[in-house]
Amino acid sequence: MPKKLALITGSSGGIGAAIAAAASRDGYRLALLDVNAAALQATSASLPDATAFTCDITDAAQVAQVLQTLGQVPELLVNNAGIVKFAPLLDITVQDFRRILDIDLTGAFVVSQQVASGLRDAGKPGSIVNIASIGGITPSFGTNAYAAAKAGLIKLTELMALEWGALGIRVNTVSPGFIDGGMSAAVYANASTRAVRTAAVPLKRLGLEQDIADAVLFLASEKANYISGHNLVVDGALTHSLLNQIPRE
């Protein structure tokens, strides 16, 4: 029996690479997508049975070409690709706002639509896991289009689960909290920021890239075969801790 195929976007490093490594350990053949060709090739070379594709996920024609080259519909799709540019709403340019939405939200739709269509035509079940953020639940200053895109992705996941459930396609979201890695690596290089944020998490530690990878592979597994349309928040209970941040006399 051929291996199942996992297609992972934004997989040149960070959380995406951790998800790829976890999927490989679970026996998947890998299709890794990113626009960073050099880093993507390095990640791909470090994993068995992995193929790298330099691809702009906002370009439907490029995505279609990748799927055609693979010759197999992915049983697992992980939409991890995303960007952020911190700036107040009054300062961010319209061009930057649109670009963030295009990659973080529209790109996930473009890839998901094509994979879901392929699964439907092949009569195969599948799993899609979208990587959102706690910023899509409770926004923070300066996250502009990123917060809007991640909130949209959570709601888009619910709609995908509704429309594609009858096809045997489960769709879920993982929303990371304070993760010591990926696009947040530079944030936690600051010792003061690291200490303050670690103290704010009820579990008293920052999350790891592996924590997110484990959540994704759980949702993709048979153990989660009746879970669809769910947003799995992986944040050490941070989003429940608001009142704990405000002292009581």
From TrEMBL:
PANTHER family: OXIDOREDUCTASE, SHORT-CHAIN DEHYDROGENASES/REDUCTASES FAMILY MEMBER. Gene3D superfamilies: NAD(P)-binding Rossmann-like Domain. One of its GO terms (biological process) is fatty acid elongation. Belongs to the short-chain dehydrogenases/reductases (SDR) family. It comes from the Bacteria. It comes from Rhodoferax lacus. CDD domains: SDR_c (cd05233). It holds the Pfam family adh_short_C2. InterPro entries: NAD(P)-bd_dom_sf, SDR_fam. This is NAD(P)-dependent oxidoreductase. The lineage of its organism: Bacteria, Pseudomonadati, Pseudomonadota, Betaproteobacteria, Burkholderiales. One of its GO terms (molecular function) is oxidoreductase activity, acting on the CH-OH group of donors, NAD or NADP as acceptor.
